Amino acid sequence: MAVGPVRVVGVRRGALGLDVGVAVLALGMSLAVLAAHGLGVPDPGARRLDGGGVVLAAASALPLAARRLAPVGVYLVAAGASVALLAAGYPLDVPFGCVAAAFFVAAAGGGDRRPARRWAAMLGVWVFVPAAAAGHAAGGRATAVIVPGLVFWALMFAGAWIGGDRARLRRDRISELEERAGAAGREAARERRLAAAEERTRIARELHDSAGHAINIILVQAGAARLLHRRDPGRSQHAIATIEQVARATIGEIDRLVRALREDTPGLPEPADPAAAIEELLDQHRTAGLALATSLHGPRAPLPRSVAWATYRILQEALTNAARHGRGSADVAVWFQPDAVEITVTNPAAGRPAPGGGHGIAGMRERATLLGGTLHTGAGGGTFRLHAKLPHRQAAA
């Protein structure tokens, strides 16, 4: 028969024990039928069980222990031994080993994607009934006597094939569900890793912004304290106090950001009230010595968290640049519109920063672009102007 053996990498002990149990059970039932001279009324012309019958019965049942390794080979051995029992005149009314082997062939090869092998396996199972008829004839039984038994055998083998095929379909379905579950688990793990990576990137950016903002304020105030140390000790002390305040606040924020990098802590909190956070930011820069003319327009409606956070960080970076590269003053306007937030910061330009000296403008532009917004900067007439627009309907969607 043109059906190749099923390759098995390994057989677990529990499965092997089950197969051995099936083989022993089939052998015991076959020997019981042979010893009782068949089922029902004993046939006086049947051959009594002897050593040869035991050997053939063992050959028809014991190979079932290896059915996972070569189900087709096991079936061929069991079928051959069963036909030999019939040809020798033994009363084998039910070929238990051969029926079990047919079930396992259907379970293993009934779903082969190659039609030739699938049909070969099916034909090999169905050809047993004509072979059994030939064995009965060789054993001296009349055809009219064995026809009812052969019909029963045909129905029995058909049931074994259908049952084996259904078992195969169930096994394939379970394997498919397990594969889907495994794929879903892997996809969920991948999404978690991507989310963690995105969160860590975001935290790193926040750490850069916060630290850069604080260091710039400290740099400006330290320069002021140095210059005013002798001329105006009071303002010098005020600058030093500002440095201390900013340093303490920065240490607390760095601690918060570092804690957020741990896997067992939630992500960064977002500013719930953007207007209040902006006012606090403006007051901080006024305290640091930056002269600000501010105007906040529009209703202070709740914003999506991403937009609120981006508004705060863009304004923070713009004011830091104004303090570092400007002449000590800036005009700030923020419009809270129904579908967007617009930020405009204008300050006198004391000089242009050195090329490649920072990533502030690139970071602000990236924040705006991620939200579907825009950010434009330009210098002219001794001033530097930044304008950002952050749509929040798109971000909320």
CA distance, first residue to last residue? 63 Å
Mean pLDDT: 77
Q: Please state how the strands of the largest beta sheet are arranged side by side.
A: 1-2-3-5-4
**Low confidence ranges:** 1-10, 264-269, 353-358
Q: Could you tell me the number of beta strands?
A: 5
Alpha carbon gyration radius: 43 Å
Choose one word for the global shape: rod-shaped
Instruction: Report on the biggest sheet.
Output: 5 strands, mixed
Strand % is 5-15%
Count of DSSP-assigned helices? 12
**Portion of residues within helices:** 55-70%
Structural class category = alpha+beta
H-E string: HHHHHHHHHEHEEHEEH
Give structural notes.
The N terminus is likely disordered. The chain is built from twelve helices and five strands. It is of the alpha+beta class and 397 residues long. 64% of the residues lie in helices and 10% in strands. It has a five-stranded mixed beta sheet with strand order 1-2-3-5-4.
What keywords describe this structure?
397 residues, Heat Shock Protein 90, 5 strands, 12 helices, 5-stranded mixed beta sheet
Task: Give the arrangement of secondary structure elements.
Elements: H1 13-35, H2 51-61, H3 71-87, H4 96-109, H5 115-126, H6 128-138, H7 143-228, H8 233-260, H9 274-287, E1 291-297, H10 305-325, E2 329-336, E3 340-348, H11 360-370, E4 374-380, E5 383-391, H12 392-396
Parallel strand pairs: 1-2
Antiparallel strand pairs: 2-3, 3-5, 4-5
Put the structure in a nutshell.
The protein has 397 residues and is of the alpha+beta class. The protein is 64% helix and 10% strand.
